[in-house]
Amino acid sequence: MFLPWPLRRTILRSYFGYELADSSRIGFSLIYPRRLVLKEGARIGHLTICKDIDLVELAESASIGNLNWITGFPSGTTGHFEHQFDRKPELIMDRHSAITNRHLIDCTERIHIGAFTTVAGFASQLLTHSINLEKNRQEAVPITIGAYCFVGTNCVLLGGSALPDYSVLGAKSLLNRAFKESCFLYGGVPAREIKPLDITTRYFQRTNGYVM
Predict the structure, then answer these.
(1) pLDDT tens digits along 170-211
(2) pLDDT class of 1 with cuts at 50, 70, 90
(3) Which of 158, 121, 155, 156 is nearest to 139 (CA)?
(4) How far apart are CA 203 and CA 206, in angstroms?
């Protein structure tokens, strides 16, 4: 963890088989999925923990910030979720997407974050698994966040929820179902459609994920 990055990158490639582009970077963090793919310019910050999932894949210039907790329940293990044979414990981030700092990401099922999307602020929770009370067992369902979305600070996204492309989820909202209408502001507990957004908004027109 505390070795210089070029040496750590060599070890991660050689001993763990991770696919790390030369221009990718991991700070002083513990990143230990079964498979790790960092494309050109992808980066993970400091003091982030990532474990017990099958795959973390960051496309070109995607980023994960500091002090995030990313965990799940690996496939092929005994106990919970044995009835879900096709479960995919994965975090997939498309190009120029970003998770900022101090978030809790549960990847017991796949979380897919679209291109140029920002999970912003602090203390959001993305939770793909819960107890099915009717069946009295743990179940996991994917979460999908579209391209050019903005997730405000301190939101909760539950398994099965989806945020369409070019959409904003207001701060402190609860997203508990799959919405389909793009270019909308969603918000509240639970989240609902609040108002349409202008597609010409400059955030939606970015060609570089980083916002000054």
Answers:
(1) 999 999 999 999 999 999 999 999 999 999 999 999 999 999
(2) low
(3) 158
(4) 6
Cβ(131)–Cβ(151) below 8 Å? no
The residues near 200 (Cβ < 8 Å, ≥ 6 apart) are none
Neighbour-count burial of 15, counting CB atoms closer than 10 A to its CB (0-12 exposed, 13-18 middle, 19+ buried): exposed
For residue 81, which amino acid is it?
F
CA 105 to chain centroid: 6
User: Would you call 2 exposed, middle or buried from its count of C-beta atoms within 10 A (0-12, 13-18, 19+)?
Assistant: exposed
- What pTM was computed for the model? 0.95
pLDDT tens by residue, 59-102:
999 999 999 999 999 998 888 898 888 999 999 999 999 999 99
pLDDT, residue 3, reads 81
Q: Hey, what amino acid is at 82?
A: E
Tokens 């490639």 -> residue: 13
Kindly tell me the burial class for residue 180, based on how many C-beta atoms sit within 10 Å of its own C-beta (0-12, 13-18, 19 or more). exposed
Which pair of structure tokens corresponds to residue 58?
């960051």
Half-sphere exposure of 37 (CA within 13 A, CB side): 13
Segment 145-162 shows an average pLDDT of 98
